[in-house]
Amino acid sequence: MKDERTFTIKQTAEQTGMTEDTIRYYEKIALLPRAERKDNGHRIYRQEDIHTLRLIACLKKTGMPLEEMRPFLAVSADTDPGEYPELVELLKSHRENISRQIAALQQVVDFIDLKLEEGRYRRDCPDEKPGGKRVSPAEMSYFSVPAR
Prior knowledge:
Strand order of the largest sheet: 1-2
CATH architecture of the largest domain: Orthogonal Bundle
Number of domains: 2
Largest sheet: 2 strands, antiparallel
């Protein structure tokens, strides 16, 4: 067995940007394999564990629920995605959801920009601004788009 560097939970937390409590929680719910222990009972982590935690953080940033991450964490990092078409489909579906969220948020940003440009911040302002430009129904409906 080769001599592999190990890390304390504190070092692991620093490298991943997670709290020690979060790392313990991911172990508790089996998203992260149980850490090996030193003779004194302290947890030790390997570089592979740090990679797994970084993947969890990345998937979490996309809004993926922890339970939906399990299949992605079960395959190794060097696995050919073609070997797991069901995971590819899950990821494509998740990507589409994110794209819809981005589009909905872009509508909100556009609406805010319009209001800032016009100098009108309240929805109940008159339909016309000085200069005669009317606010279209599309502009006023921006906030009604569900972000899913």
